[in-house]
Amino acid sequence: MIAFRTALLSALVALLVASSLIGCAGIPRPASEPPGGPPVESGSPPTVQPEESRPSPPPAGREPVGLYTYEVVNAYPHDDGAYTQGLVFENGFLYEGTGLYGKSSLRKVDLKTGNILLSRDLTANHFGEGLTVYRDRIVQLTWQSKVGFVWDRNSFEPVREFPYPRDGWGITHDGSRLIASDGTSTLYFLDPETLATTGQVEVRDGDTPVDRLNELEFIDGRVFANVWVTEKIAIIDPWSGRVTGWVDLSGLLASRPSGKPVDVMNGIAYDAVNKRLFVTGKLWPWLFEIKLVKKGSGPG
User: Fold this and answer.
1) Are the CB atoms for 142 and 164 separated by under 8 Å?
2) Which of 211, 78, 195, 92 is nearest to 140 (CA)?
3) Taking a C-beta distance cutoff of 8 angstroms, is the pair 224, 249 a contact?
């Protein structure tokens, strides 16, 4: 009996030694076991929560949108036959683009008198739209002709004509990019040398798209945009498209009534040197210098 137990014990020891040797030779672990061995039941560090299951951070609160009215500083004579589509103040003069078929033009205008100092008519098949002065050149859009024009700023001689893939409305620049509107809620960015479209952004007031964006002016890092058939200007962050303010110009022309038919407000120009803001409208007899007056804020 003792001999049997001794033999059985020897056999078990031999079996355990053989199993250990086989494990060292590379028998794989079960697939469910991690490379570092089975998880420790106690004292183990907490596991990292998978990224896709982590809670999202709370949305950042929207800044309130600034609300502005105005104070009239000056009123200057304006050609009441000018169907104003684009307006720029540069080096002491106004540059104005006018519209309507057969009446579209490019003009250099004396601010104080409203006298036209230099002009160039577009051909009758082009409906002139917005313009901007970029360095020594003027870029002018047309409404539906699918072309734009580049003029010499000093002589108004043509520099080039370029294809334009959408309706032309307003145009301005931020020093490195041209920024254009097409009557929708989108602003487009153009390379100032090639005039190719390089990007776009949708303009929204909170979650609501703001369409009918028309004449544009870049002022202190923001785009000021006339909203067609309204007496309002949207102030826009051009990087995000977010509306950061509204200017209500209700009753502006009524302060100096006209005896002739007029059309909608359109035309924003800014004297960056003297910090003066000018606005006018299509067929308006006056160009107004205004000062913005903050009247409160609304939800973003």
Assistant:
1) yes
2) 195
3) no
- According to the model, what pLDDT value does residue 25 have? 38
DSSP summary character for residue 238: T
CATH number, domain 65-298: 2.120.10.30
Domain-by-domain residue ranges, the chain? 65-298
Residue 90: Cβ-neighbour burial (10 angstroms; 0-12, 13-18, 19+)? middle
What the block records as the tokens of 88 is 């720029």
> Could you tell me whether strands 116-121 and 128-134 are parallel, antiparallel, or unpaired per DSSP bridges?
unpaired
3-state secondary structure of 12: helix
Q: For residue 69, give both structure tokens.
A: 């009215």
pTM above 0.85, yes or no: no
What pLDDT is attached to residue 167?
Answer: 97
Q: Which of 46-60, 155-169, 175-189, 272-286 has the lowest mean pLDDT?
A: 46-60
Structure tokens at 54: 């982590």
Nearest partner of 226 among 179, 300, 173, 170, judged by Cα:
170
Burial track 148-158 (b if 16+ CB lie within 10 A, e otherwise): bbbbebeebee
Taking a C-beta distance cutoff of 8 angstroms, is the pair 119, 131 a contact? Answer: no
How far is 208 from 3, CA to CA, in rounded Å?
Answer: 94
Cβ–Cβ < 8 Å for 122, 104? yes
Q: How many Å apart are CA 288 and CA 252, to the nearest integer?
A: 8
Residue of 76, 74, 85 whose CA lies nearest to 283: 85
Cβ of 100: how many Cβ atoms within 10 Å?
A: 17
Closest to 214 measured CA to CA, from 202, 229, 200, 236: 229
| CA–CA separation, 12 and 244 (whole Å) | 83
